[in-house]
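Worked example (supplementary).
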Amino acid sequence: MIEVLGAGALTTVQDRGRFGCLRWGVGTAGAMDSMALCAGNILLGNDRDCAAVEICVFPFRVRFGEECAFALTGADCVAKLDGAALIPWSAHVARAGQELHLAAPQAGPMRASRAYLCVAGGIDVAKVLDSRSTQLRGAFGGFEGRPLQRGDVLRTGATKRAPGKAACGLGLVPPQVALPLERDGCRAIRVLPAAEYERYTPESRASFWSGEWKITPQSDRYGYRLSGVGLQANAPMEMRSHGIVPGVIQVPPDGQPIVQMRDAQPTGGYPKFATVIEADMWRLGQAPIGSRIRFVEATWDEAIDALDELDAWLAEAQRHVSLHAGTGKTAA
Amino acid sequence: MAEAEGRVMSVEGEFSLLGTTAALFEAPDAEMTLQTQQRIWALAREAQEWDEVLEAVPGMNNLMLAFARPPRELAQLRERVLQAWSCVKPMTLQGRVVELPVVYGGDGGPHMADVVAHTGLTIDDIAELHSTPLYPVYALGSHPGYCYLGGMDPRIATPRRKQPVLRIPGGAVSIGGFQTGVSASPGPSGWNTIGSTSMSFFDPARDMPALLQPGDSIRFRVEKVIR
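After joint prediction of all chains, the assembly is encoded as:
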């Protein structure tokens, strides 16, 4: 078990998400950076979908109640275990009573914003509608359907191997480094135009691609509200409500786009300008408030290839960890 | 058949992408009708069985197909959807009628003034017109247990808000364009809230978590009008 000693707002338990419940109005939720979640689980020999703690407000502190293998992925938060520095994107073992401390993410041009604390066996909260992700709007799933707070005690799931057998000492090269995507010094996000794209003025369409978009403070797991040169439609549109997914870029009448994120509603009615490709959602999920992004148009084939690229990265990570576990000092 | 502003518009309906995560089919009908919705329900039932479809999600006279894995060959899926749409027959669903008492206006209806301003009607007229129809549940969406309803009187239609409101309470009765609905839990909304009611619409512990399903109906009863 792990006790939360200090957590900022919006620290939540997430797995990859809750699928198949859109027809009841239940959005998918899930980790904003699914690559970091999967990588952390791979490092621990977990199923990739095991639940972890997603942290986006710092500092964050927990105490381990028993010996526990854990991995830290996502943003590099200068993690310390009882004061000793930990290497990011690798697995570690905590002894009973040790405290883990995460500080604000390291500064830099491509600063990440969310850290993941994965534990061997995963965070053991009850599955609700087949997922352990926190459904904030519905107040269910995760830990009591709410963000974590000081004093919460999280159980860890059963593991196949002893804590000492985690792939300690092996680090993964973060996808952000291995699969970089930038345009003019900005984080680049690939999108496909959506149904109403052609109904915007040529100037608006041009500025969408050429301009920088700032992620405003009114951004969270539900959506990122962007600010930039406003997008003007040729004529006002009043849409029928329809299904939407994380990544859809809606344009309310004020012209400032909103990108739906993991806690997005499953339906919407604002015009859709474009949609972030699934393979780049983790990049956007790591983009901090106040940072600037650029949009790049993808073709359908490129967007599908990008998914394959992520799968290949995860398979390679899995292979590294398996090799290490098979030959390392921890072999039985 | 027309090619309007680069979108594939046709009498067959429209097929568009939501990135690589889903595709959207929109029925071509100019009017939003129950009969079209019944065909959407039938199309959803059929598409749910397709390999590439994780979930077929009805909207208002449209259908979203969330992908299990996006298909490489998009054209085939588009053809398949349009072909299926041309064949489906309306599927009638037998449901229940749930009555909801509503307090119109006042603190629970903070945007009533905007609907008054847009429609030129009085608060009493709006409450009257809003509570008259029997509203069929077309689809669920927005948030757990929320119902999209058909059948609103077009005279009280009011455009969605220029900027979404960050938080409206559960039980808020609201109008967005030609649609109306009741929020099932607190959260953000771009619609105009005209009143409030109380009802538990969703419980994930139930076998059927949502109180209402497509095919059920809601009747709003005027409990009070605050002018």
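Two points are worth noting when inspecting this output. The helical segments of chain A are 34-43, 175-178, 202-210, 281-286, 300-327. Chain A has five helices and 21 strands.
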